[in-house]
Every structure is written in C-alpha cells, then in structure tokens.
Amino acid sequence: MPSVPKPTGQSTSGAPGNSGGKTTTGASSDERFSIPDLCSPLAVFGVVLASQLLALLLTLAGRPGWSAFYSHLAPTALMLLWTGLLSAAVLCRLRQWLTRFDVREGSIVAYLVVIGCVCAVSEVAFWVGRFLGAEADTGGNWFPTSHWSFLTRNLAIATLLMAPLLRYFYVSQQWQRNVRREAGARLNALQARIRPHFLFNSMNTIAALTRSNPVAAEQAVEDLADLFRASLRDGRQLIPLQEELEIARVYERMEQHRLGSRLRVDWQLGQLPPTAEIPGLTIQPLLENAIYHGIEPSPQPGMVMVSGESDGRHIRIAVTNPLPPTGHAGRPGHGLALDNIRERLELAFGKEGALTVESAAQHYTVTIRFPADGARSYA
C-alpha cells in the first residue's frame, strides 16, 4: 500500500550532535546580524531620496546665502548620491556574508564598509579636482582643495549617520523576529487544534469497520498510523504538496472502507509542482468536510471532485461536493475548520494565501490559493 513519506528524524534546531543547540557557523539565527535587501528598487529609491534630503539639509545648515545656494547644493548632492549608492551596492553584495556575524561584529563590519566607501568617493572627488586644476574653494567650486579637512568632515558625517542607521536595522530585525515567532506560535496552535478532530474522526471510521469488516479495519489502522505520523513531523509547519495530497488520498481510502460505493472521489490535479509547500493537514480537512456534509447525509451515491491548477505563480486547489437533495437536511456546520485553514494560509503566505467558499444550488466548493514557489519563514 502507498504510505505517507516518513520524517527523517533530523532536528532542525541545530547541527546533529551539538547538544548546546547552536550551529557550528557561529551565532544563532536570532543573534545574527541582518540588513535589508539594499538592491531592491524600493531600497535604491530610499537611498537616493535620503541622500538628496541630507544634501539639502547640509547646504541649508552651511548658510551659503541664496545666491550661492545651488552652487553649493549640486556638489554636495552628487557626493552624497555616489557615496550612498556605492555603500548600498557593497552592503548588498556582502549581505549573505554578514549574516555569519553576530549583531555587534556585523555592525562593526558594516560601519567599516561604509567608512571605506566614504573614503573612496572622497579621494576620487579630491584627486579628480586636483587633476582638473580646481582653484581655491571660495566660490562654491565643485571640487575641494583642502584634502584632510574634506576627508575628515565626510568621515564625521558618516559616523554620525551610521550609528542611528545601524540601531534602526537592529530594532527592525528584532521586531521582525518577534513577528515571526508570534506567527509561528499561532500557526502551531492552529495546527494542534485540527489534529484531535482529525484523529477522532479517523477512530470513528475504524470503530465502524471493526465488526463489519475486520480486514478493512486493520488496513484502516495502518493508514491511520501513517497519517498521524505525518501530522507529527519534526514540528514543521509547511510540507511538500505531494505529501499533503498523499495524506488526503490515504484518508479517502479509509472513508472508502466505510462508505463503499456511496463515495467516489475524482482527482483532477493536472501538473502541479510537487515540491510547493503548504501547511500540513490543509487539503485533508477539506476532503473530510466534503464527505461529512455532502456524501453521508445523502441517500444516493455522490462524487467529490478535487481539482487543481497552477499558473506558475500561484496554485489553486478546489474541493467540490454535492449538497443533499431536497427533503434531506444537511448536517449543520460551524465553519471552524474553514476558519482554521484560512488563518493558517494567511499566516504562512500573507496576502498570497487565501480560502474562498462558493455555494450553489447543488454544489459546495472550497478553493484554496497559495504561492507555487515559496513561503514565509517562521524558523
């Protein structure tokens, strides 16, 4: 019989054999230095905007007089623009390497990187001015003539700016870490709430088969062992889509033992990426609801359709079940399972994870959507 892939048993909290709980690469993930992606378009725009605002502030603070305002503003703005873009480019290039350090060491390295960029741009500006034969810096010329005064002034400004900036990066990192921890805790709590419900319904299925079909009951116990083992996998919140679909198929086989020819499940999944990640026990509860509300109350056989499609960016999986015919009351539901799945998708994928419900005259469809190529990390 096909079985749900078993967990490997390898801990994700650290390197194997390291009882201290720390990895061999240095600081733990919570203590590592981190800076935002300075290569993103929004970050580059922020660097350009901040450099020009700073140039305007420094020019106004220097009180050059309105007649010489623009002649002082232009070289200051150009100097700060090139310094900001060079520093952002170098830090972006070193971003992954900087994560090897803890917060203190990483801050020192980042500061030295920026100081190096300031020195480089300052030296280029000074020696280009010397090469072009810049005259005394009395009329707002573009190039400075006092070497050490120009360099030390720029270094002092960089030092005063880097201190609050690195502090901002640190506070932002701590805030994001707390958000991830809170979201991960909520995701674990929601996952824990759905497991007992799943277990109790599976046990009811086995109990119904014990007297009528002992062989099928034994098979169902083995299936339940596989399913429950899959639900307790190493504390991971996200599992490959292929494993989640296998969980749902094994649950279908358990219900098939109990309902026999009354239940048919049509799987129309097409070419879905099997390695896409999804919260565990997401599709199985939808299939369970479809059988509970659409097949069991009806005196006639019924078919549940599980369809899926992917546009390369998102995956959509819909579970459709028939509604009981007129004269047969359906089973009341509180929507707790749907709310649980909806919240877990939103926690795992943000706005890219969603659950929608469509109720027609004869059919009830629940559709989930999630990214095909990645998810948030709550490690």
Short descriptors:
379 residues; 5-stranded mixed β-sheet; disordered N terminus; alpha+beta; 9 helices; disordered C terminus
Task: Give a topology summary.
Layout: H1 41-62, H2 69-93, H3 95-98, H4 103-132, H5 147-212, H6 214-231, E1 238-240, H7 241-259, E2 263-268, E3 277-279, H8 283-295, E4 302-310, E5 314-322, H9 336-349, E6 354-359, E7 363-371
Parallel strand pairs: 2-4
Antiparallel strand pairs: 1-3, 4-5, 5-7, 6-7
Quick structural overview:
56% of the residues lie in helices and 12% in strands.
Largest sheet: 5 strands, mixed
Helix % is 55-70%
Strand/helix succession: HHHHHHEHEEHEEHEE
- The neighbouring-strand order within the major sheet is 2-4-5-7-6
Structure class: alpha+beta
Shape field: elongated
Q: Uncertain regions: pLDDT < 50 for 5+ in a row?
A: 1-27, 134-140, 375-379
Enumerate how many helices there are, as a single number.
Answer: 9
Mean pLDDT: 76
Q: Report Rg.
A: 31 Å
| Cα-to-Cα separation, first versus last residue | 34 Å
Q: Tell me what portion of residues adopts beta-strand conformation.
A: 5-15%
